[in-house]
Every structure is written in C-alpha cells, then in structure tokens.
Amino acid sequence: MTDDRSIPSRRDLSGLPRFEPGTVWLVGAGPGDPGLLTLNAVTALRHADHVVYDALVSDEILDFAAPGAHREFAGKRGGMPSPRQRDISERLIELARAGARVLRLKGGDPFVFGRGGEEALALASAGIRFRIVPGITAGIGGLAYAAIPATTRDTNRAVILATGHSAGGAVDTCDWAALAKTGAPIILYMGMTFLGEVAAALMAGGRDPRTAVAIVVNATAATQRTHVTTLDRAAADAEQLGLAAPAIVAIGDIVNLHAALAPFSLNATGQVG
Ligand SMILES: C[S@@+](CC[C@H](N)C(=O)[O-])C[C@H]1O[C@@H](n2cnc3c(N)ncnc32)[C@H](O)[C@@H]1O
To answer: What global pTM score does this model have?
Structure first.
C-alpha cells in the first residue's frame, strides 16, 4: 500500500456550502484534535472574516483560519467571569449586520451543553441567517479516544449525557436518582467540581458503589489522561491525583471495555493506551 498523501482523489471540495457574507456559522470544533474537524468546519475557518471562539478551542485549530481573519475570544479566561451570553449573541448579530462572514466556533458540538441553541434563537429573532455545523462532542469522541465505546450491544441500549455543572448548587434541576434507576451509563460534562455530590446522589438513587468510572482529562489532546476507578472512590481519586477540567466522566459498564481496548487503541500522539 502506498503512503503518498499527495495523490489526488476523485472528489474535490467544491460541493461544500459557500460561506455567504452577512451570515453566521455556528460550528463545533470537536474536543481538541484538529483531525476531528469536519470538512464544513475547515471551510468555515478558511472563509470566515471574523472568528468568535470559546476557551476550549485550541490555537492549532484557529490556525486553519485565513491570515487576515479577525479572531475574537469569547470564553472564560484565568478566573475572569465569562462574557454574558446576551453580549455574545449581540456581538454576532452586530458583525453579521456589518456584512461579515461570522464564524462562531465552539468546542465539541455547538448544541451539546454549548449554548449553540441559545445563540441560534437570538440570531433567528434578529432575522440573521445561520448554518449549524455539528462537531464531535467530547462525551462521545473524547471517550472513544480513551477506548471507551458509548454503546455496545452487550452493555447498554441507552446512554445519558448529563451536566454536573449545577449539581452542588441550590437549583440542581437534575433528578440524579431517576438517572441512576435507568441503569444506563451516564456521561458527565462539567462534572469535576461536584463529582462527589453527583456520585453520592447516584449511589443514594441505587447505583452500585462499585460501578466503573473513567475520568478522561484533555480528551483527544496529546496531554490526554484516563483514570479508571469506581463510583465510591471517583471524587477522592480526582482530588488526590489533581485531575481537573476539562474532563469527561463516564459512569457504567462501558468503562470496563477500556482495559481490553486501550492496549491496542492508538491515541492522538500515535501511542497506545
Ligand atoms: C461547556 S461544555 C462544552 C461541551 C461541548 N459543547 C461538547 O459538545 O463537547 C465543557 C465541558 O465539556 C467537556 N469537554 C470538552 N472538551 C473536552 C476535552 N477535550 N476533554 C475532556 N472534556 C472535555 C468537559 O466536561 C468540559 O467541562
């Protein structure tokens, strides 16, 4: 088999959508590895006049943008408060009305815990046309890089994506006991701050304390780290090992597949494990 990547293919990229001035593309950049960008995401980066990007979008990905494109950070930076969602939406509207091709670039998928829905609604109310470009969400693609399949026929018929963001707060709207009772694996986004509270609520709801848990930090990046533990130990392990966001926490039998798959699964740096 040849390894010459310069051999032309039969298909060029001319069939991809055009980025029209005065429109906004809400694009998912995937969990970090630039190889997980979609062709539409690369098109958006190449043609955007203005890129408004979030904290989890790496420089490696931003470097696909045209040299003249204006880059504007709209995420949370070093302890500073995040910009208000309303201000970001208004900025997108302002740029589109000025005739720019506006790329709103988000980590993972824009519609999975990414506020893409809120921004799309704001654009629709302002009469601005937009295109949604889905991305690979960290809870599926990030776990895949850690050799943990979201489903297999032998383990689960359903999978739950949940956020742990409000779990320690007064307004935790998630019924953890109800989720526990489904028996389905739970994939937790933003789960590190309140991991102890979530684990306790799931065990109180009937989940076995020995349920397997994987904490995948910096999934798909060269610095990816996977720690496998159990539900009753997960929060203590995370603290002891200094595991911090961004991390995906997988809870359930799917995690048990990691031991068999990881020794053969090549990661972002081409190593196994
Ligand atoms: C605001 S949410 C955005 C989720 C994103 N829209 C997605 O679809 O993946 C941020 C959370 O996503 C998860 N996350 C995003 N990228 C990650 C990565 N590379 N490794 C681990 N977790 C990640 C973490 O739980 C992080 O706290």
So the answer is: 0.94
